[in-house]
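Weekly puzzle thread! Below is a chain. First person to post its structure in C-alpha cell form gets bragging rights.
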Amino acid sequence: LNDNANNNAVTGNTCNSNTAYGIILYPDNSNNTLTGNICNENETNGITVYTSTFNAVTGNMCNDNLQDGIDIYSTSDNCTVVGNQCSGNARHGIFVYSSDDCSVTGNTCNGNTEQGIVVANSSINNTVTGNTCFDNTEHG
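Winning reply:
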C-alpha cells in the first residue's frame, strides 16, 4: 500500500521470494490491517510498516527473510503487532524502530540470526507482552 492508502484490509496473501519486501506500507498509510499473510524468503523484510500510523499486523507468518520478519519503522506510531510467527530471519523477528505507542503481543519469534524482538532508537511508550522468543542467536 502506497501514499495515503487508508482503511484497507490485506488478508490471506502469499508473498514469497520477492526481490524486496513481501508486503510494505509506505508512506503515510493509516488504519490498515494486515492479517493472515504468508511472507517468506523475501530479500528484505517479510512485512514493513514505514512512516505509517494506526496499523495492525496480526496473525502473519514471516519466516526466512534476508532481513527482518516484521519491521515497524520510522514514526509508525500506534501500531499493533499480535499473534505473528517470525522465524529463521537473517536479522530480527520483529523490529520496532523510532516508533511510539505500539503493542507487540503474543508473537512467536525463534531461530532468528539476531534478536527475536527489538525496540530501538528512541522508541517511546511501547508495550511488549506475552511473546515467545527462543533459539535466537542473540537475545530474545
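Puzzle host: Confirmed. Bonus trivia for everyone else. The chain has one domain: 9-130.
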